[in-house]
Design a protein that fits this description.
With 226 residues, the protein is α/β, with parallel strands linked by helices. It folds into two domains: 110 residues, 3-Layer(aba) Sandwich (Rossmann fold), CATH 3.40.50.1400; 104 residues, Rossmann fold, CATH 3.40.50.1400. Helices cover 43% and strands 16% of the residues. The chain is built from eight helices and eight strands; from the N terminus they run E-H-E-H-E-H-E-H-E-H-E-H-E-H-E-H. Strands 2-1-3-4 form a four-stranded parallel β-sheet, with helices on both faces. Helix 4 packs across helix 5. It is elongated and about 55 Å long. The relative contact order is 0.19.
């Protein structure tokens, strides 16, 4: 039996974000590889959705590591007791194809060789996620042959504004912001108000995101079968 992919995220903030999450779930389901159940909402709502799924389940975060503080905290508090044949995957992180797509988005947004880059993450209370953000910045820097500073929107320091100013003090008059978030929402406009030269859209929509989520599900399916 193919385990059901349960896509999990907090969707309480705004309608555009909610719509983007459901579009993502639909795109994964349209591949026809696995049954997909969207579980978007509060912790109570997500746990209720989980208990409606029969058979084995793979919980897949519909967010990137360090890119969605509310979803990460909710995911970490899920009560999976009593749910047999259930496992979860880590949030999407320093995947070469995703970092490559982010680099291409920067170029499309107006970044040029010699410009600085700020990787704009949401933040997280999890040190593992913080390390993932650092790894993404390092990989992005290698791809672009350009300095990449990490800045945070809602947790930790430095802020995105701090990171932009640091690059400019170091001689980078043009600085682009790479949005490290899976889906968009009503607060996307914040990135445009930070004084950067340009900024990217969220990682979804992208076939690479769907491919990576399905790859995570395959690996988890093998663990359940072991």
């Amino acid at each position: 039996m193919v385990p059901t992919m349960v896509l999990v995220a907090d969707d309480s903030r705004d309608t555009p974000r909610r719509r983007a999450l459901w579009d993502l779930a639909g795109a994964v389901a349209d591949r026809g590889e696995v049954p997909v159940v969207p579980a978007f909402g509060s912790r109570v709502e997500v746990e209720a959705a989980l208990r409606t799924v029969e058979g084995p389940r793979v919980l897949v975060p519909a967010f990137v590591a360090g890119g969605d503080l509310a979803s990460a905290e909710m995911f970490s508090r899920l009560d999976l007791s009593g749910l047999a044949d259930t496992c979860s995957t880590a949030p999407l992180g320093a995947v070469p194809s995703i970092v490559g797509d982010l680099a291409a988005r920067l170029v499309d947004s107006g970044w040029a060789p010699g410009d600085g880059v700020v990787l704009a993450a949401d933040g997280s209370t999890d040190q593992v996620e913080r390390q993932v953000v650092t790894d993404v910045a390092r990989m992005l820097s290698r791809r672009l042959s350009s300095p990449v500073q990490v800045g945070y929107l809602n947790a930790w320091a430095p802020t995105v504004t701090d990171a932009i100013e640091r690059l400019r003090r170091n001689g980078r008059s043009r600085v682009s912001v790479a949005a490290w978030r899976l889906v968009g929402g009503a607060d996307d406009g914040r990135l445009g108000d930070l004084g950067a030269t340009s900024h990217t859209a969220p990682l979804w929509p992208s076939d690479i995101v769907v491919d990576t989520l399905l790859s995570q599900h395959r690996a988890a399916k093998a663990r359940l079968a072991a």
